[in-house]
UniProtKB/TrEMBL annotation:
<dbReference type="InterPro" id="IPR043594">
    <property type="entry name" value="HMGL"/>
</dbReference>
<keyword id="KW-0479">Metal-binding</keyword>
<feature type="domain" description="Pyruvate carboxyltransferase">
    <location>
        <begin position="3"/>
        <end position="269"/>
    </location>
</feature>
<dbReference type="GO" id="GO:0004419">
    <property type="term" value="F:hydroxymethylglutaryl-CoA lyase activity"/>
</dbReference>
<dbReference type="InterPro" id="IPR000891">
    <property type="entry name" value="PYR_CT"/>
</dbReference>
<comment type="similarity">
    <text>Belongs to the HMG-CoA lyase family.</text>
</comment>
<dbReference type="Pfam" id="PF00682">
    <property type="entry name" value="HMGL-like"/>
</dbReference>
<protein>
    <submittedName>
        <fullName>Hydroxymethylglutaryl-CoA lyase</fullName>
        <ecNumber>4.1.3.4</ecNumber>
    </submittedName>
</protein>
<dbReference type="GO" id="GO:0006552">
    <property type="term" value="P:L-leucine catabolic process"/>
</dbReference>
<dbReference type="GO" id="GO:0046951">
    <property type="term" value="P:ketone body biosynthetic process"/>
</dbReference>
<keyword id="KW-0456">Lyase</keyword>
<dbReference type="InterPro" id="IPR013785">
    <property type="entry name" value="Aldolase_TIM"/>
</dbReference>
<dbReference type="GO" id="GO:0046872">
    <property type="term" value="F:metal ion binding"/>
</dbReference>
């Protein structure tokens, strides 16, 4: 079973960084990702620039993307974001619905039910414009404000989101609290014909275990894993939500466990140092420092 990689460093990786990265450097990062064979990249977020300053150049980044081989994804939070994504010529949109009302209010200014209604409107319009759609259920593994999120609550949100017929459903451990037992429990709640995507953070050093659990469960279901070069990233609206799983570390884990991805880890190894220089701090990824095995 091939596991697809969705690279999120240009969006989720950078959005939580206080050092603003110039557009040219973002495009250089993206060029390296493309050279490795990654074929789905979440490149931008169409958020309000005052709320997420790192994404203020979303249109400029989109204008510089190499077209043809890669499916380019934009995160959209509302219909205005969808308008921008369509105008920018992106291939896919990812819409976030937070599983808890408190976090949804903090993140998007509406309760979960209103976020689901907005997702449904966006899904219909995006499909009409020829864009592929993903709905991401954020905080599916735990909420920074409400604590444990019952599986039944997540299932209810999943069922309501599936009414809009997304091309893909993503389950996100937004604050990095999940464990493999939760991966298995949530996997069982998603109908078998729905393509699944998983978004793990390594905040508590469980992200890679969760990713391997998701890969083991994939079977014949189309399955994608989000990851971020160097392990950079986090959510600006969730306290201490640091650390996506690092793409190069994830590739090492998957390849050594017999899961092909179609991505060459080699071109990604220098990215850790380059990102560290750009951001002014060491990045969490380990493989770039430890090296491949066998060498």
């Amino acid at each position: 079973m091939t596991i697809s990689i969705v690279e999120v460093s240009p969006r989720d990786g950078l959005q939580n960084e206080s050092t603003l990265v110039p557009t040219a450097d973002k495009l250089a990062l993206i060029a390296t990702l493309v050279s490795s064979g990654v074929r789905r990249i979440e490149a931008v977020s169409f958020a309000h620039p005052k709320r997420v300053p790192q994404m203020a150049d979303a249109e400029a980044v989109a204008a510089g993307l190499p077209r043809g081989d890669v499916s380019w994804i934009g995160l959209v939070l509302n219909e205005r974001g969808l308008d921008r994504a369509i105008a920018a010529g992106l291939d896919e949109v990812n819409v976030v619905v937070v599983a808890t009302d408190t976090f949804s209010q903090r993140n998007q200014g509406v309760p979960t039910s209103e976020a689901i209604a907005a997702w449904s409107r966006i899904a219909a319009r995006a499909r009409g414009a020829g864009l592929r759609t993903t709905v991401t259920i954020a905080a599916a593994f735990g909420c920074p404000f409400e604590g444990e999120v019952p599986v039944a609550r997540v299932r209810s949100v999943i069922d309501r989101c599936l009414e809009a017929a997304p091309d893909e459903l993503a389950l996100a451990d937004t604050i990095g609290v999940g464990v493999p037992a939760q991966v298995r429990a949530l996997h069982a709640e998603v109908p078998g014909d729905v393509p699944l995507r998983w978004h793990f953070h390594n905040t508590r050093n469980t992200g890679y275990a969760n990713a391997l659990a998701a890969a083991d469960l994939a079977g014949d279901r189309p399955t994608a894993l989000d990851s971020s070069a160097g392990g950079i990233g986090g959510c600006p609206f969730a306290p201490n939500a640091t650390g996506n799983i690092a793409t190069e570390d994830l590739l090492y884990l998957l390849h050594r466990n017999g899961f092909p991805t179609g991505v060459d880890v080699g071109p990604l190894l220098p990215l850790g140092a380059r990102l560290g220089d750009l951001l002014g701090h060491q990045v969490p990824g380990q493989l770039a420092r430890a090296g491949l095995f066998p060498a």
